[in-house]
Every structure is written in structure tokens, then in C-alpha cells.
Design goal:
Helix content of chain C: 55-70%
Number of domains of chain C: 1
Helix content of chain A: 40-55%
Order of helices and strands of chain C: HHHHHHHHHHHHHHHH
Order of helices and strands of chain A: HHHHHH
Shape of chain A: flat
Strand content of chain C: under 5%
Oligomer: heterotrimer
Shape of chain C: globular
Low-confidence stretches of chain A: 1-10, 118-147
Number of strands of chain A: 0
Mean pLDDT of chain C: 91
Low-confidence stretches of chain C: 1-15, 563-567
Chains: A mainly alpha (147), B mainly alpha (243), C mainly alpha (567)
Distance between the termini of chain A: 82 Å
Strand content of chain A: under 5%
Bound molecules: protoporphyrin IX containing FE, copper (II) ion
CATH superfamily of chain C: Cytochrome c oxidase-like, subunit I domain
Number of helices of chain A: 6
Structural class of chain C: mainly alpha
Number of helices of chain C: 16
Radius of gyration of chain C: 24 Å
Mean pLDDT of chain A: 75
Number of strands of chain C: 0
Largest sheet of chain A: none
Chain lengths: 147, 243, 567
């Protein structure tokens, strides 16, 4: 298979039917494997529970399937470098969203006990160490001023 | 870029692809790569679009593992697997349509497009069956959402104790309908685009017959729809038992 | 002199009106079905200007209401609707697309020597998408308005607000897709349509900026599209995605919202940076100092801009560890912005500076953006932000960058390219004074807001009777707003007037450097009569000819003429 960029634009490369058909078969086999793996429980290995492993296997297989679709069916394998660049950009950038997990995973850890006011070790919530903080009734503060 | 010399604009380009070449391009190679890059940048936006949904799913799934697992019991993985096969097969016929377009075999292109559209309809038919069963069991989110964990079968209710928080189950079905619904919208749009392409081929339109790239662009879209489902299927239908 | 090979000098033909993109066909139909990027730019210019004045109207109401500690005329609910309308209109329907879709659309093909964008019909389609979106949004504002603010925070927007949230959001969805199609168009055009010899490092910096902006648009906009769509799903179809009652997380909405909306502030400012580079280089008549640094800092901002969104959520129950990381990266993103500022000022050094109206806007931009960017650092450090968040300090910060930055650059660019777009020269004398008026009016409006915000005045309230000492600042601000309004209105008049009585501009009225100045003004339908071949570097001001020009200008001055070189 010619892997030259020119193949994509001008003398376009014609992929034989057998390659496409082989890909289809591979995709269906992979799907059958995912379904089969989901039917029984993988035992825990070290810190990874079987649940996690099961899901990992399913996602890895899905990733392989996606890779096959993108490279063969969508023809990225035979495209110019520019097209390849844009083909991967979305998938790479999407992972940035998982920075959000950093928030959810670390929220429960607080560096100082005093930051949790209802704990016994916490300091009382006061201004200037003296008078307790005045409670403002939010509804009262919202009264319309002109009446 | 094309020639290294200034070409007068008014003159045509002595090229077999003339009828399909738009005025802003110098030659068909430039035009075709522009189309492909344009389509891929569009697909980048689609990846980010569905990406946010997949992220939302991941977060809630991690938060409510057990509830989501029980809730997913109502989904029938056999129907899901069937639909996956249908979509994979339609991707294959789509790519064969593109190949036939490269070889300029018009009747083959039309035949393959017909099969692809047929697969799309089968997919939607199965989805209709699945959605109906959810509606029948009051699993569409909202005030009428079922309060009875028994709808989830043996795992919902063990020894008279409900095993699932129905609010979280509702969250799961919110994601289920949101994600598969948007995917189904993409399928419907795909049917429209495929049909339009088929009509162009039927009418011997120069815009598609001279060069294969317009057919390939539709193909890229269709494969993307398949791609989304490749991930939706294991995430929605094949959750492992938590323990 | 330039070494490009296009012969525009024999243009126009003697005695007859040249055919250009404006006059080759006068029917309305030819405008509404055009594929010509220059005409679409004009369509965008008209529609965004209209939208901008609607948004300004809302701003005027806000400033009027705040002249008294107890409010003046508006009810609380009405006030909520007014500031929400202002934000939605200005952010989603003006700032994120005004610069790319008008000046960018017009100039990108001209600057790279192409006949058009890669996808002209898509370009027209994007204008229609924008119009549909604007119509939906406006109908939403008319039939009930929205009271969520431009940020649409859940669960208020998704569960409680009884206003036209869905309609407005669907309008935003359309305008978002309009930006996306423009972005795709620009990216492909920059990659594939450059004229022979137009290498990446011969691109004007405005093109770099448009490219980076488009990358942000296509990576970010889909995220807000789906996030807002989920709010609509929740409102209309009861899908409980962000509903805390059922275990959903409203803070997730904020994450996804700012995942787009922080990068979106760079969508607004990067094209302004690009225009700024053009103005500074051409009016200081020097190659931009550190061209490569400026180009790469544009890309760096586009990338880093995606990693700082959490600085909007320091007090939204975000984990404090993640807050610290976001704070750190926010400081990092200020580095490439500062590189630009330093390079512009370095370009001015020993430049042959001409203080024509675009340059006055450009100089104003440097000052105002610096203030806006530096106060961003105040807000970006967690400790100070806890006190400053949701006060007028934030309001002042983002107006310094969005109005002081983007609007100043937009006005500067509009003046600069106006002769190219219309073929007519405007009255530069009025324009200079207008630039000064905008600068002064702007500072009078927004500087007091820093102070009053620092003192603790919260944003989004229509009274402050609990702190009447805020009144002088607010009065100052409202007075400044009136001056600013005048400064925005005047160009609409004198620029329009120039269409009727302005002198003919000629192809290069500013003596500027760049491909767009080498075709006639207004340009012919296909931009260039033949495909240009680029052989010279960008901003390649030749010192010898510069010297001769200076001599000529001096001679003119000696004879009592106008040395500005404009007309
Ligand atoms: C030096 C770079 C910048 C930094 C470090 C920065 C930092 C911040 C921070 C921390 C906030 C949140 C304040 C709060 O809500 O408590 C903020 C708000 C904001 N910034 Fe910036 N900023 C920068 C540049 C810009 C630019 C260039 C723009 C626009 C062109 C911009 C537009 C905004 C807007 C619109 C908001 C308010 C959002 C809202 O409605 O809550 N910023 N900025
Ligand atoms: Cu920000």
C-alpha cells in the first residue's frame, strides 16, 4: 500500500475490498469479545478490582475498534500529514476535559482541620477573635429599598 | 500551493476535473485536501461535543456505580449488540460506496448507499423498540419516573430491600436518553445526507461523479456516527457488576 | 517598495468607474446570495453593529439605574433581565464573532493572496446561522427576557428561572455554530489557500491571530453548545443532568461552561492582538519586534487558555488544590500576553510613528489592555479573588480587556481598513478626536469600578443603599458611559458620511505594507487581478524608501500641505 501523501489528493489510492472486509470482520470479532468478557467476572488483580478491569477491557477494545474505523474506514492511514494532524486533534483535546476530575477527586481533602468549622478542633467563627459573626437574614437584606 | 507562476484567472485550467473545480481553488488536489481537512475539523467539533457528554457520564458513573449498574439492567445488551453489528456493517457498505466512487462504478455506489440507509433505518427501528420499553416501564425521567425498584428485575429489590436509589437511576436514564438521543439525531441527519448524495448520483450530478471526495466526506460523517456508538455500546449496555 | 508582482498600478482604467466587489451588482438579491467573503463581511458588519447598539442600550439602562443608591426606575426583576440581555448580546452575539467575521472575513483572503475563503457558501451559511440565532435570542428577550446572567448557572437556569432561557439558549446554539463554521473556514483557508511564496512566517500577525482564534473556536464552542443544550434538555425534556435533587452536579455545569468561556475570552482578544500588531507595525513603519515570538505567543495563548478555566470557580466549592493549580496556570498565561505588550512597545522604539486615528486607538489599546491583564492577575490569585469575586472589580477587569482591548482594536482596525473596504477616506481629524474621546470616556466609566469593587460593591445588584458612599463612583461611571456612548455613535456617522463625501482613497492611503494594500480599493471581485507571488518578508519597510517618503512629507509640509499621507 502506497503510503505517500500524494495518494490522498491526486492519484488517490484505492484500498482493496479485502482490506475493508477484513476490517469489518475484525470489528465484529472485537464486539463479540467485549460482550463475552462482560458476561463473566474478572477476578481482582492487586489493587484493581474486577469491575475496573472489566470496564478497562471494554474500553480498550472500544479504543481498538475506534482506531480501526479511523485509520481504515475513514482512510486516515492514507491521508496527508495535515489531515492526520486534524484527525487526532479532537481526540487529544477531549482528554483535557478530564482535568475536571482533579477537582472531584481532591475535594474531600482539606489541609487544615480548622477549615471545617463543625469539627471540634475548629476555631470558633468570629470576627477579630471576639464577637460572633452576625447572621444576616438573606431575605431581609433583599427587601426592596424604595418602600 | 499550485503553480509557481502567476496564472491569469480568466483562463480555465486544462484539467480533467474542470467541472468539479470551484473558482477559489487552483487545482483539484488543493480543493480535495481542503474538503478533507474541513470535514475533519468539523469532526473535531463533534468529538468535543460528544466528549463533554462522555465526561459527564464518567463523572456520574464513578459517583453512583452501584445505582447505575442496577439501572442499566433494564437495557437489553442483545439489542445493543445487534445494533452495533448493524452500524458496523453500514460503515463497511459506506466505505465500499466510497471505493466504488473512486472506481467510478455508479450503480455500485447507489447500491451501497441504499444498503447503508437501510441499515440506518434498522438501527432506528431497534431504538424505537428499546425506547418504547423504557416508556412503558416509566423509565423516562420526569415526575412520572417509576418509583418501583422492581422494574430493574432481581437486582433492584433483594429480600424486600430496595437496592437502588431511584433518583440516581433517573440520572442514568437522563444520560441514556440524552446521549443515545443525540446519537439518533445524528443518524437521522445522516439518513438525510446519504439520501441527498444518492439522488445526486442518480441524477449523474457532476458535483459527485467527477471526483470521489464528496462521497468520501459523507462517508467520514457516517463513520463518525458509528464511532460514537462504538463507545456508547459498552458504556451503556455492558456495565460490569460492581463489587 | 514591495516586490510582489501584481500590477494594480494600471488600475483604474481612465474615465470609467472600475468594477469592484461593491458595484458589480446592486440588487439586494445579489447581496443575500453572495459567496464573496468581502460582501459577507459587510453583511456581518451591518448586523453586528445593529446588535452592538442593542446591547449598548441595555448598558445605558444599567448605568442610569445605578446613579442612585436606591435604584432609579427598574424593578429588581427587570434589572436582572437588563444585565442578562446586555451580557448575552455582547458576549455571544458581538464580541466572539465581530472581529473574525467582519474584519477577519474581509481580510484573511486578501492578506494571504487568495481569491476567497475555502468554502464561500459555508461562509454565507454561517451568516444565516448567525441571523437565525440572533432572531431567536431577540425574540426570547422580547417575549419575557432572561434573568440568569450571561453565565446561565444551574440549577437556577435549569430548574427555577421562569424566563425565556430555552429560546435564548437555542439562539446562542445557532450563533455558536455560526462561529464554528467560520472557524473551520478560516483554518482550511490558512492551511490551503496561501498564495505562492506566502510561507507561514510571512503571514501578517492578524492571520496568525485569526488562525489561533479559529482553533479555539472549533475546540471550545462545541463544549458550550452541548452544555447549554443539556440545560435546555433539562428544562424542556426533564433530563436531570445537573439537577442536585437527583444527584446531578450543578458545579459540573460551571466546569463545562468555563471550559469554553475562558478560552472564549481569548477568542475575543486574540483577533484584537492581531489587529494591534498590524496597526503598530504599519504606523511605526517598522517590522514587529520579535515577529516569531509574537506569532508563537498567539499559539501559546490559544493552548494555555484551555487550562485555566477554574479561576472562575475559586469560590464555587471547587477543590482548593485544583484552585491552586488553576491559579498557577493563570499566571503562566499572562506571560505570552505580556510578551506581546513588550514587543509592541519595543516596536514603537525608534519607529517612524504616525499619529493617525488607527494608531491612536492602537496606543490606547496598549494602555487599557495592560490594566485589564494586570488586574486579571489580582483575580487569578486565589486569596485576593475570594474577596474580589462577584464585585465590580471583576466587572472593571473584564471591561478593560473586552472594551478597552477588543473594542479599541476593533475601532482602530475598522478605521484602518475602512478605505480598503469602501474606497473612501473618512475625516481623520474627527476620527483622532473620537479616539481620544473613547479613551477618556472609557477610563471614566470603568476605572471608578475598580475602586468601588475593591471597596466591596457587589455586581448584579441594582441598588446600594447600604453603602451610599459608593454613589460618587457610580455617577462618575455613568457620566463616562455617556461619553463612551458618544464615542461609539460618532464613527457610525462620520464613517457613513465618508461613503458619500469622502475623498477617493487610492489603493494604499496609509502607505502600509501588506498584500491587501496592493490591490485596488475597494478590491475587485476576485481580490487580485492575477494570483500574487510573494517574494518579500512581512512588514518589510524599506529604510531607504522610508527616508525618501519622509523627505517628501517634509517638503509637502514646507509647502503648507498635509503630510499625513492619507489624502
Ligand atoms: C492576563 C490574563 C487574564 C487573567 C489572569 C484573568 C483572570 C480572571 C479571573 C481570575 C476572573 C474571575 C474573577 C471572578 O469571577 O472572581 C476573570 C473574569 C473575567 N475575565 Fe479575565 N483574566 C485575564 C484576561 C482576560 C481577557 C483577555 C478577557 C477578555 C477579553 C477576560 C474576560 C473576563 C471576563 C468576561 C470575566 C468575567 C466572567 C464573569 O462574568 O464572571 N479576561 N478573569
Ligand atoms: Cu477566565
Amino acid at each position: 500500500m502506497a503510503n505517500s501523501p500524494a495518494a490522498a489528493s491526486h492519484e488517490h489510492h484505492i484500498v482493496p475490498t479485502s482490506t475493508y472486509f477484513g476490517t469489518l470482520i475484525a470489528l465484529i470479532v472485537l464486539m463479540v469479545i467485549t460482550v463475552a468478557v462482560a458476561q463473566f467476572q474478572i477476578p481482582d488483580i492487586g489493587p484493581l478490582t474486577g469491575t475496573v478491569l472489566n470496564q478497562l477491557v471494554a474500553l480498550i477494545i472500544a479504543g481498538i475498534k475506534a482506531f480501526l474505523v479511523v485509520t481504515i474506514f475513514m482512510g486516515v492511514k492514507w491521508q496527508t500529514p495535515l489531515t492526520k494532524l486534524w484527525a487526532v486533534t479532537g481526540f487529544v483535546w477531549f482528554t483535557l476535559m478530564f482535568i475536571i476530575m482533579g477537582d472531584y477527586l481532591t475535594r474531600k481533602y482539606e489541609p487544615l482541620a480548622s477549615w471545617r468549622p463543625n469539627q471540634e478542633t475548629a476555631l470558633p467563627r468570629t470576627i477579630h477573635g471576639g464577637t460572633p459573626m452576625p447572621m444576616v437574614d438573606p431575605n431581609e437584606a433583599n427587601l426592596h429599598p424604595r418602600e | 500551493m499550485a503553480g509557481a507562476h502567476a496564472e491569469p484567472l480568466a483562463h480555465g485550467h486544462d484539467h480533467g476535473h474542470d467541472e468539479a473545480l470551484h473558482h477559489q481553488f487552483e487545482d483539484i488536489g488543493q480543493q480535495n485536501e481542503s474538503y478533507l481537512v474541513g470535514m475533519w475539523t468539523f469532526l473535531v467539533t463533534e468529538v468535543m461535543f460528544f466528549g463533554a457528554l462522555f465526561f459527564t457520564y464518567t463523572l456520574y458513573r464513578l459517583n453512583y456505580q452501584y445505582d447505575f449498574w442496577v439501572a442499566h439492567e433494564h437495557l437489553d445488551w442483545k439489542l445493543g449488540a445487534f445494533n452495533t453489528t448493524v452500524l458496523l456493517f453500514s460503515s463497511f457498505t459506506m466505505v465500499m460506496a466510497v471505493q466504488s466512487a473512486q472506481l467510478k462504478k455508479r450503480s455500485h455506489v447507489m447500491r451501497y448507499l441504499e444498503i447503508t440507509v437501510a441499515c440506518a433505518f434498522i438501527f432506528l427501528g431497534v431504538k424505537y423498540v428499546e425506547y418504547s420499553s423504557k416508556f412503558a416501564d416509566h423509565l423516562y425521567p420526569g415526575i412520572s419516573f417509576s418509583t418501583d425498584p422492581k422494574v430493574f428485575g432481581e437486582h433492584g429489590f433483594v429480600n424486600g430491600v430496595p437496592m437502588v436509589n431511584m433518583n440516581h437511576a433517573q440520572l442514568f436514564y437522563g444520560l441514556y436518553f440524552g446521549m443515545t438521543g443525540l446519537h439518533a439525531v445524528h443518524i437521522i441527519v445522516g439518513i438525510g445526507v446519504l439520501t441527498a448524495l444518492w439522488r445526486l448520483w442518480k441524477n449523474h450530478a457532476k458535483s459527485v461523479t467527477v471526483d470521489y471526495v464528496p462521497t468520501e466526506l459523507v462517508g467520514l460523517y457516517w463513520h463518525f456516527v458509528d464511532l460514537v456508538w462504538i463507545f456508547l455500546f459498552p458504556l451503556m449496555y455492558l456495565m460490569p457488576t460492581p463489587h | 517598495m514591495s516586490a510582489t508582482s501584481i500590477g494594480t498600478s494600471e488600475f483604474p482604467k481612465q474615465g470609467q468607474e472600475e468594477v469592484n466587489y461593491l458595484n458589480y451588482d446592486h440588487t439586494l438579491r445579489s447581496w443575500l446570495t453572495t459567496g464573496d467573503h468581502k460582501r459577507i463581511a459587510i453583511l456581518y458588519l451591518i448586523s453586528t453593529t445593529f446588535i452592538f447598539f442593542l446591547g449598548s442600550l441595555a448598558a445605558g439602562m444599567i448605568r442610569f439605574e445605578l446613579t442612585s443608591p436606591a435604584g432609579v426606575v427598574l424593578e429588581s426583576e427587570t434589572y436582572n433581565k437588563v444585565f442578562s440581555s446586555h451580557g448575552v448580546i455582547m458576549v455571544f452575539f458581538f464580541l466572539v464573532l465581530a472581529l473574525p467575521a467582519t474584519l477577519g472575513n474581509f481580510l484573511l483572503p486578501l492578506m494571504i493572496g487568495a481569491r476567497d475563503l475555502a468554502f464561500p457558501r459555508l461562509n454565507l451559511g454561517s451568516w444565516y446561522l448567525y441571523m437565525v440565532g440572533a432572531a431567536l435570542m431577540l425574540s426570547g428577550l422580547i417575549f419575557g427576557g432572561i434573568d440568569t446572567g450571561w453565565t446561565f448557572y444551574t440549577p437556577y437556569s435549569s430548574m427555577y428561572s421562569n424566563t425565556q432561557v430555552s429560546l435564548v439558549i437555542i439562539g446562542i446554539f445557532f450563533s455558536g455554530f455560526s462561529s464554528i463554521t467560520t472557524g473551520i473556514n478560516f483554518i482550511v483557508t490558512t492551511h490551503k489557500m496561501r498564495a505562492p511564496g506566502m510561507t507561514w512566517f510571512r503571514l501578517p500577525l492578524f492571520v496568525w491571530a485569526l488562525y489561533a482564534t479559529s482553533v479555539i473556536v472549533i475546540l471550545g464552542t462545541p463544549v458550550i453548545a452541548i452544555t447549554l443544550l443539556l440545560v435546555v434538555f433539562e428544562r424542556l425534556f426533564h433530563l436531570p443532568i445537573f439537577s442536585p435533587e437527583l444527584g446531578g452536579d450543578p458545579v459540573l455545569f460551571q466546569h463545562l461552561f468555563w471550559f469554553y468561556s475562558h478560552p472564549a475570552v481569548y477568542i475575543m482578544i486574540l483577533p484584537a492582538f492581531g489587529i494591534e500588531s498590524e496597526l503598530i507595525a504599519n504606523f511605526a513603519r517598522k517590522r514587529i519586534f520579535g515577529y516569531h515570538f509574537v506569532a508563537f505567543s498567539t499559539i501559546a495563548i490559544a493552548g494555555l487558555g484551555f487550562l485555566v478555566w477554574g479561576h472562575h470557580m475559586f469560590v464555587s466549592s471547587q477543590s482548593m488544590y485544583e484552585g491552586l493549580v488553576f491559579s498557577l496556570i493563570s499566571f503562566l498565561v499572562a506571560v505570552p500576553s505580556a510578551i506581546k505588550i513588550f514587543n509592541w512597545t519595543a516596536t514603537l522604539y525608534k519607529g517612524n510613528i504616525r499619529l493617525q486615528s488607527p494608531m491612536i486607538y492602537a496606543l490606547g489599546f496598549i494602555g487599557l489592555f495592560t490594566v485589564g491583564g494586570l488586574t486579571g492577575l489580582f483575580l487569578g490569585s486565589v486569596g485576593t479573588d475570594v474577596h474580589l469575586t462577584a464585585t465590580y472589580f471583576v466587572v472593571a477587569h473584564f471591561h478593560y480587556v473586552m472594551v478597552g482591548g477588543t473594542m479599541m482594536a476593533f475601532l482602530g482596525g475598522l478605521h484602518y481598513w475602512w478605505p480598503k473596504m469602501t474606497g473612501r477616506m473618512f475625516n481623520d481629524g474627527i476620527a483622532k478626536w473620537n479616539a481620544v474621546l473613547v479613551f477618556v470616556g472609557f477610563n471614566l466609566t470603568f476605572f471608578p469600578q475598580f475602586i468601588v469593587g475593591w471597596l466591596g460593591m457587589p455586581r448584579r445588584y441594582h441598588y446600594y443603599y447600604f453603602a451610599p458612599e459608593f454613589q460618587p463612583y457610580n455617577i462618575m461611571s455613568s457620566l463616562g458611559a455617556s461619553a463612551l456612548a458618544l464615542g461609539f455613535l460618532l464613527p457610525a456617522f462620520y464613517l457613513t458620511a465618508s461613503l458619500f463625501n469622502g475623498p477617493k482613497a487610492g489603493s494604499n492611503p496609509w502607505g502600509a505594507h501588506g498584500l491587501e494594500w496592493e490591490t485596488s480599493s475597494p478590491p475587485p471581485v476576485t481580490n487580485f487581478l492575477e494570483t500574487p507571488i510573494v517574494t518579500d518578508e512581512v512588514y518589510d519597510f524599506d529604510p531607504v524608501s522610508e527616508y525618501e517618503q519622509l523627505r517628501a512629507a517634509q517638503d509637502l509640509l514646507d509647502e503648507g500641505g498635509n503630510p499625513g499621507g492619507s489624502y
